[in-house]
Each structure stands twice: as structure tokens, then as C-alpha cells.
């Protein structure tokens, strides 16, 4: 039999091991990217157009395309998602029939493989609505994909707002709308920001969806109806289709990761500022 | 809330502006093979530079999609990285380049060449160990292409195999994935585009190209037309294609883009004419 002390030591070791494995994976990934991509990185790389299928040149227009796709996606996801989450947390009982039904639909949607959303977007936005291969189609399809996740996370953070806030608001005879805008939303801002980061991460990482909707064109987009290649699609194409594309693929990946970290920081900063003092 | 309203309002304005800014310029859309797309995208860039009023959008998604989109009119021109099938005779093909396919092994593998029968036996699982082929005493890792890939169809056709007979350990998609898989596994055998494989091998990748039917796997031999597994890279259109599409296809087949074809490690269609 293991003594309690020994068991404790073993468990401690196991926990340390798992924690360090979790830490090692991103470090290894960053190391690999840096080894392959760092020599290619330069200011020139950030602003110039890709040449020779991306082996030379840069990723300037692709950064703009990615930014626009994300902009379209988030400007649909955030207002629609917060409204939907508010409805779920304020008007529907979690255990009621309609509450359960909506939760089930959201859970199923967030588990659907992204290629299904890609094919849906390709048929619905690109063909039926006639947006074609465009940043608009891509952004809207990503929005469909990220929305369920965003609603779920936002709803949870709204539900976790302390009930004492609600009681105090009622004691002060605040209207429901006043309570939502002045107290509930600001106090859940950190959670909403976290949900936005997760949705952004999912959108930026997506490749399959965007090949079918936003497309493959590397030209600088002039409008939301132009096709534009996202950074993730570029990385995929360089790594899978272009001989000699490993270095620019890694360099593009470094930029994409930095993009994510930047958005992460920005969202944290904004949510802190929104918090009531 | 105000901020959200601003965002929505600006989005609406952006969309409506986008609608207006669609100028009168001519537009050409190509979709299809992911092998052909990088080449055609480069050709398109040069064509655009010569014809400033023309805009060409190149999309990818696979040869089958190229055929479908060209038929349905979703694309003006489809890109197909193989010859057309009998069932696709309604389309017109225009070959812009040639590509060869060869078998590759890890550099450290002592096996130098394999006969046609050996390759068939390896892929059907009759030979399972490298020692039967003069190599080390270890199991062979067979790398095959995913269903629907043009390279797969070409490979099966040359060796007289059916995909259901192939006993694969790893199924891969794109060309570079095949190269990376074999590079990372000294016991693997796979097949990929010659040009890309030769380039990677010259640049330090741990792979070697096997001759097929005794013919060395070089781009030169594809160009001479003596390499046994070659495929055309085609642009396909329906009977009634637009004048712009015709102009672009003519340009893509001309000498003016020979250097671009070479940069993508293919053989220009007019090289041996």
C-alpha cells in the first residue's frame, strides 16, 4: 500500500509532468516556426504582394483581406451573439423546454465540422445570395460558425453575474433595460471579451471554410465583394501545394500568431476599461 | 450600444459602396485543381499587368470542382490536372503544361530501383518487408493519395491497379504532404510530382526519386515525352466560352509564360513542339 505521503508525492509529480507537457507544446511550436520563418520576416514581407506563388514577396494584401474577413465576421457575431445570449439569460429559464431546445441547437451547431459550414456558405452566401467568392461571403460564413460558440460563452458569463446585482437593481427600482445596459453588460465585459477572443481564434484558424467562400485571390481587395486570401489559407497553400514554400509559410504563421496575441491583449484592455469603477 | 450601431451602419455603407465600385472592367473566374492554381494565378497576374481593364480571380478546390464549375457556369474556365474522362467529353481541353509523377523513397533507404511488378506487389500488400526488395528488415510504409486526386488516378492507371486493391498505411492529400511524409519516415514509399520532388531533393530534403520502367525521373525526360507517368495540366471550357476566356487560354499556352511554368516545376505545353 502506498502511504498517504507517497501518494501525494506521486500525484504532485504527475501534475508537474502534465503541466510541463502543456507548456512544452507551444514552446516547441514557436521554436519550429522561428527556425523556419524568422529569416524571411521583414518589414518588406509585411507590406509587399506575394510573388512566385508566395515563395517570394510578402503578405501585405493578405493581412488586409484577413482583417476585413474578421471585421465582417465580428460585426455580425458580436451584436447578434450578445442579443441572443441576453435573450437566453434574461428571458428564458435554463430548465424550460425552449431553453433546452435552444441550448441543444447551439451545442449541435458548435460541434458541426467546419467544412460543412464552408459548403453551406459556398451554396448560400456565394451562390443563392450572389455574393460570389468574396470577403463578405467568407466573413458571414465564419460568423455562422463562430456564433454558437460565442453565444454559449457570453450566456454563461451573463448567467454568472452575481444575483446581488439584480436584487440591488430591483431594490433601487431600476428598469430591466437600464439594469442590462448599466450593470449586467459592463460587469460581464471580461467574459464577453473572452468569448470574442475565442470566436476570433476560431475564425483566424479556419482554412477549409475560407477556401470555399473568401477564396484564393492574392490581390489587394478593393471592396468587401472582392475575393481575398486569408493568412490561414496562404499558410495551407504554401505548406501543401508549393514546393519551397516552407519558409514563407512559417513566416506567415508567425504573423498570424502575433495577430492573435495582439487581439487577445486588445480585448483584455478594452474589457477592463468597460468595467465599472 | 452606440458603438455597435456605428459598426453596423459602417458595414452597411461599406457593402453599398462595394456594390457601386464594381467597375465596368471585364472579369474572368477560374476554379479547380490545387496543383494548377498557383501556376495559373501567376499567369493571371502577368495577363492583368498587360490588360489593366481585366481582372482574373483564381480559386482552388480540386479538379472535379473545376469540371463542375465550368459546366454550371460558376467559372469561366476550369482547371483540371489530368486528361478529361469520357464522361467529360462535353468540355474542351487546353493543355498549358505537363507534369510527371514518380515514386519516392527516403534518402537512407538502400533500395535504388523497383520494377513495375515490385511496385504493384508493394501497393497491393503482397510484399510487406523491405528485405524482400534488398533493403533493411523492416515493414514497408505505403503512402497512397486520397480518393479523387488526379495523381492517384494516374498512378493506378499506369500500374493497372484499382484503389480498392491498394493496401495503404498512410493516405495523404496534397503533393507537399507526400514529400514531407516520406522525408519523415525512412521506411515509407510514396508518389509525387517530379518537379517538386526534384526541387526538394536538391534543397536538402531527405528523399530520392526512383526511375519508373527504367526511365530516370527528371523533368527533362518528361519534356522529351519518354517518362511513362505524365499528366497534362488543362484549362477546360464549355463550347460557348467568352472571348476573354479564349484570349487568356491562348496567352497561358504561349511562349510568354514559359518562365512561369518553369518556376512552378512543370514543363510548358509547347516545349517539345
Can you walk me through this structure?
The complex is a heterodimer of chains A (277) and B (273). Chain A has 2 domains: 4-40; 44-274, MetI-like fold. Chain A is 75% helix and 1% strand. Chain A is built from 12 helices and 2 strands. Chain A has helices spanning 4-37, 43-47, 60-91, 97-111, 114-128, 135-159, 163-171, 176-187, 189-205, 208-212, 231-241, 246-274, and strands spanning 50-51, 56-57. In chain A, strands 1-2 form a two-stranded antiparallel sheet. In chain A, a hairpin with a 4-residue loop joins β1 (50-51) and β2 (56-57). In chain A, α6 packs antiparallel against α9. The radius of gyration of chain A is 22 Å and the shape is globular. The mean pLDDT of chain A is 89. By secondary structure, chain B is α/β, with parallel strands linked by helices. Chain B folds into 2 domains: 27-98 and 232-268, D-Maltodextrin-Binding Protein, domain 2 (3-Layer(aba) Sandwich), CATH 3.40.190; 99-224, D-Maltodextrin-Binding Protein, domain 2. In chain B, strands 1, 2, 3, 4, 5, 6, 7, 8, 9 and 10 form a 10-stranded mixed β-sheet that branches. In chain B, α5 (150-159) links the parallel β5 (141-145) and β6. The radius of gyration of chain B is 22 Å and the shape is elongated. Chains A and B meet through α3 and α11 of A and α1, α2, β2, α6 and α7 of B.
Q: Trace the largest sheet of chain A across and list its strands.
A: 1-2
Radius of gyration over C-alpha positions of chain A, nearest whole angstrom: 22 Å
- Envelope shape of chain B: elongated
Low-confidence stretches of chain A: none
Given the structure, what is the number of helices of chain A? 12
Would you identify the CATH architecture of the largest domain in chain B? 3-Layer(aba) Sandwich
CATH architecture of the largest domain in chain A: Orthogonal Bundle
CATH superfamily of the largest domain in chain B: Periplasmic binding protein-like II
Mean model confidence by pLDDT of chain A: 89
Q: Can you tell me the CATH superfamily of the largest domain in chain A? A: MetI-like
This entry's quaternary arrangement is heterodimer
Topology, number of strands of chain B: 10
Q: Could you say what the CATH topology of the largest domain in chain A is called? A: MetI-like fold
Order of helices and strands of chain A: HHEEHHHHHHHHHH
Beta-strand percent range of chain B: 15-25%
Report the CATH C-level class of the largest domain in chain B: Alpha Beta
Secondary-structure content class of chain B: alpha/beta
The general outline of chain A is: globular
**Cα end-to-end separation of chain A:** 55 Å
- CATH class membership of the largest domain in chain A: Mainly Alpha
Name the chain pair whose interface involves the most residues: A-B, 32 and 41 residues
